[in-house]
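Exam revision sheet. Question 4 asks you to relate a sequence to its structure. Input first:
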Amino acid sequence: MTIQIELDPETEARLSAQAERRGMAPEQYAGELVRENLPSHDTEKGELTREGLHAMLKEVGEGWENRPKLPTSAFTRESFYEDRT
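Answer key, structure tokens:
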């Protein structure tokens, strides 16, 4: 599919600069931005298929190993309500 969009000069310059940093053509980079930011599941109907659920869970789990590890003590009742007496 081909889509044409109008960009103001500042946005066009930012898009071109980011694409150049990645060694890509601006059109290719713009397509990548759309693919990465377009939800893979249908949110309009409020229904989620099994495949949509799996895709959503995969997206949520991506990069999990790079997140900071928290000690078990961070999840105690006291840690959630420490300022209440």
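Marking note for examiners. Residues 58 and 67 are 15 Å apart (CA to CA).
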